[in-house]
Amino acid sequence: MTFDRGQISIGRYWDIPAGRKSEATERMSEAAIVGRFRELLEEAVRIRLMADVPLGMFLSGGLDSSAIAALMSKMIDRRLQTFSVAFKQRAFSELDYARQVARAINADAHEIVIDDQDFFGALPQLIWHEDEPIAHASSIPLYFVSALARNHVKVVLTGEGSDELLAGYGKYPRALANWRAGAAYALVPPPVRKWMAASVVPNVPGTIGRYASRSFLAMPRTPEAMFFDNFAAVGLGRQSTLLSPRFAEMATVERAYGPSRAFFDVPNGQSTTLDRLLYADMKTYLVELLMKQDQMSMAASIESRVPFLDHRLVEFAAGLPTRMKLRGFTTKWILREAVRGILPPAILTRKKMGFPVPFGIWMRGPWQDVARDVLLDVRSRQRGIIEPAAVERLISSHAAGATDGGDAIWSLLNLELWYRTHIDGDGVQAITGKPLTLPSATALRATA
Asked: What range does the domain containing 147 cover?
């Protein structure tokens, strides 16, 4: 904002240079580009080590946090302290990978393992901290690992931002393939396409049918349909069935995805479809992730820093050609090459987990009754936001394994608890008898 002789003007002083290809980069070899990326990443980490207090690292065992941890360990004069969190269910634990990295870099590793009692005991208090319904179930374990780190350090570095900057999610290659196939499919006469979408795809059974329903065979070739709603946790179709009629009318493409489409349309010139997707995600989805990171770490009174979002690194990466980010279905290609010599091979090739939470499994056990009690009691019914009969069917169908409704139940549960806490003014809710505490009984400390 500029104030000049009584006049105020507001303008953006910096933006992500999506699609602005660097002429210097175009003249560089791939090896030189990878080397320059490594230099910028190292400098981003080094800058964020400036502090008068102890620092540590949130280590999931994924590529992003492992890369930062490996670089960080070479820049400090003591063993790096890392902090990891997992659930008791082995399928939802990345601790084996985090331990591999900790051993490889000789870190002083700290771990915490939580269960469903810890999760639901913390949920109401963390809704109060976040001030709005919690979008990501991973916010809860993030709080616990922040509380663990707070016992040892004041500042942590994290791997946030890499996926949106370097096309790290599996949705990107799938979305691009779907988009290209949709362009070819547009040559098929419209009546045939309409018949396929209405009569053939809905009758394809099993996994193939689910994939077909999310492909060019069943949806219009628009960014709203193929890119945004297709990868939403709870798509507009499901929303409209779970909301009461007056709210279901508001679940429109324009309301839900207008801002995302506006950001998608900003890059131009040399911008590729991937450039535009990444730009839109950095302006929307990444903002949510950073808010989650900030609020959950500050709830435990710890500061978190994100090297991947150093503006020099972002400017360099945003101008890279698609091949430096995606190679077929290999994501974050340039990052994998940049840290190939300092990480165990298993970390470079492992499948991305994305901090999974077994909420859907818990909703097929006794916790479904808690969700039912919250969502279908008198207060929720009188509020008039949801369609009670549809919500009851959703919970029952999910519990029976007939459908996957975990994300929808999570969203509805958070909405109702948030409404009671902040709109009704009833304060932190109680859905279990277990208070929010750091579960020392399950906290582990492993020194690599």
From this structure: 13-168+295-349
